[in-house]
Amino acid sequence: MLGCNLSSSVLGEHTVKPHVLLLGSAGQLGVELGKMLPAIAEVTALARQQVDITNEKSLRNTVRAARPDFIVNAAAYTAVDKAETDRELAFAVNRRAPQILAEEALGLNAWLIHFSTDYVFDGSGHTPWKETDATNPLNVYGLSKLEGEQVVAATGCRHLIFRTSWVYAAHGQNFLQTMLRLRAERPKLSIVNDQIGAPTSAKELSQGVLHVLGRMKQQEPESGIYHMSCGGETSWYGFAQAIFCRATGQIPELIPITTEQYPTPALRPHYSVLNGDKLAERFSLRLEPWETALAQVMEESGI
Predict the structure, then answer these.
(1) 77, 119, 141, 237: the active-site residue
(2) Which residue segment(s) compose the domain that 44 sits in?
(3) pLDDT in tens, 256-295
(4) Does residue 30 form part of some domain?
(5) Which of 98, 101, 223, 240 is the most exposed place for a label (fewest CB within 10 A)?
(6) Does residue 294 lie in a domain region?
(7) Are 158 and 223 in contact (CB under 8 A)?
(8) Residue 254 is assigned to a structural domain of this protein
(9) Are 149 and 116 in contact (CB under 8 A)?
(10) Number of domains in the chain
(11) What is the pTM of this model?
């Protein structure tokens, strides 16, 4: 188990692979992690159909039966607008389930790898957010993720929480897939141009996680929050432009609009770019620029 020295036992090159329990394996991040993690670990990958993370007894029994060295929680409630009226489920998935996993990780002396969001910030200012900056979520989703971070840390378990942003993949429900679907339905698309962030591919994020786990065979890291998102920044309008610059087939006309022109149930931060300096300093890692990551996803997917 992870009570041993990481540098010599858990991730060593000539030792037994660690056991990873991957939750949320059917989601856009879980799918990519499920492809990559077997290269460095023995993986038990479970989707929502196999374990209900809102069922405390089932979740605890699942972790105890697996007895993993790492719990990687890729399960999350990410329907930002729906969360405004579906608060109970959002908190069950984003707050209570991580707390249970953290408590079980503590009991097993395992590591919990958990993911959070740029939406824990209110988006004021124009400087990339650091891990030490004050949080102030504007919506239920962001609040549920923030409280998830807090309860994980409060257990005292070994944990790495990776805040990321604007996650997308070649599968699942995300901005990339929405744009590709709408281009066949509408000749014109109005896209918000005054919310700034960093699109992050699930593949690039997963590669980052593997890099961190690889570094752990050299030195056990400090538990805490780390910002892990692709480099650079853009608006949703700029993201859409980049998608259609690389896409084949029908290309719609894009019309930039303001947040006020596209009201949604949940407020969103105007500027939520994450500062990745801590990740670079502790793990010698910076993710690819968002444009590079997007090009890779679209090329590999034949989009």
Answers:
(1) 141
(2) 6-169+201-231+273-288
(3) 999 999 999 999 999 999 999 999 999 999 999 999 999 9
(4) yes
(5) 223
(6) no
(7) yes
(8) no
(9) yes
(10) 1
(11) 0.92
